[in-house]
Amino acid sequence: MSSPSSAIAIPESEIELSAIRAQGAGGQNVNKVSSAVHLRFDIRASSLPEHVKSRLLASRDQRITRDGVLVIKSQQHRSLERNREEALARLHELVALAAVVPRQRRPTRPTRGSQKKRLEGKIRRGEVKKLRGKVHSAPD
Length: 140
What we know:
single chain, 140 residues, alpha+beta, Double Stranded RNA Binding Domain, three-stranded antiparallel β-sheet, 4 helices, 37% helix
């Protein structure tokens, strides 16, 4: 099954990758090796189709800055290459989600049977409420 999102390719020139030091535990190695990756992708300046750009910018993702730059940080793996691959995979996943056009909802009309049932229920309820009036004593 081929989706339109798989056809969207992002040129390497539009993606800015930089190696940074990973945070957290890792012993001496974590202080001297830059194994984490910062991926920056300028959505507005990219060659993505306009509808994908607008949907990406409209999404309330905290990784997208006010300037329209998507920043993804990957530090899950020990090797720089695996972190780089993961960051690129996350970028492609986000773009693929934005490329999917949501289906338009068509409001349905209530059926005649459901309308009739609703009105009968209202009438029945009204009858019950009418019976709650003051009790009049019958004249002798």
